[in-house]
Amino acid sequence: MLDVRDLKVAYGQAPALWGVTLSLQPKELLCVVGPNGAGKTTLINTLAGVLRARAGRIEFEGRDITALPAHRFCEAGIALVPEGRRLFGSMSVLENLEIGSLMPAAKARRALSLELVLALFPALKAKLAQAAGELSGGQQQMVAIGRALMSRPRLLLLDEPSLGLSPLIVTEMFGAIGRVNAEGTAVLLVEQNVSMALRVADRAYVLEEGRVVAEGSADELMRRDEIRRAYLGV
Fold first, then answer.
1. Which regions of 12-77 does DSSP assign to beta strands (E)?
2. CATH of domain 1-75+187-234
3. What are the boundaries of each domain within the chain?
4. Sheet holding 29-33: strands in order across?
5. Is pTM beyond 0.90 here?
6. Using one digit for the tens of pLDDT, what is the confidence trace for 41-75?
7. Is residue 66 a contact partner of residue 57, using CB atoms and an 8 Å limit?
């Protein structure tokens, strides 16, 4: 479904990704983990079209999308939940959700998409008229994920969805992500909470200093001593 080959990204003259290669299958939940500064956000923003690759190739469903304009990535079936949520705080929850369904195909099915989002996050039902900026951090993350789902993506990209949330809310959030994936949406998850990410993922890549240093099934990586020492503290 997603095939990334020898991806290189730089900020000016400073390289951020060095020859990253990875793949994701339809309906798979893939996670990319690694320390701060490893290039995880750079990677996911490049896959969403927010950043441009310096070299390499990104194929989605057999189509080369490397040079697509940023606004065409959503049209192609890719949606991003950015780090920090980036909601429109003064707009209502409903308005924020509806922003995710502005493409014609998604707009035609907006009512059904909204119903599905509210089934996934029932806590938002009573908050639709409330300003998004007044919600708790966990509820804002629900809105951010819901907004992305309103575009009816085939690939959902999530950048640090657990950031700043309490352990209980993190567990609920990952449960919701698992349900989205179980219903057929492929998920690529970038996450610092390695233990939680590996629990829900089918496969994982470990990124360090802009390079992939390990890959395999979540179970395989959990059994590797160097991964356990470096990322799980055991």
1. 14-24, 29-33, 55-60, 63-64
2. 3.40.50.300
3. 1-75+187-234
4. 78-81, 155-159, 186-191, 29-33, 203-208, 211-217
5. yes
6. 999 999 999 999 999 999 999 999 999 998 899 98
7. yes
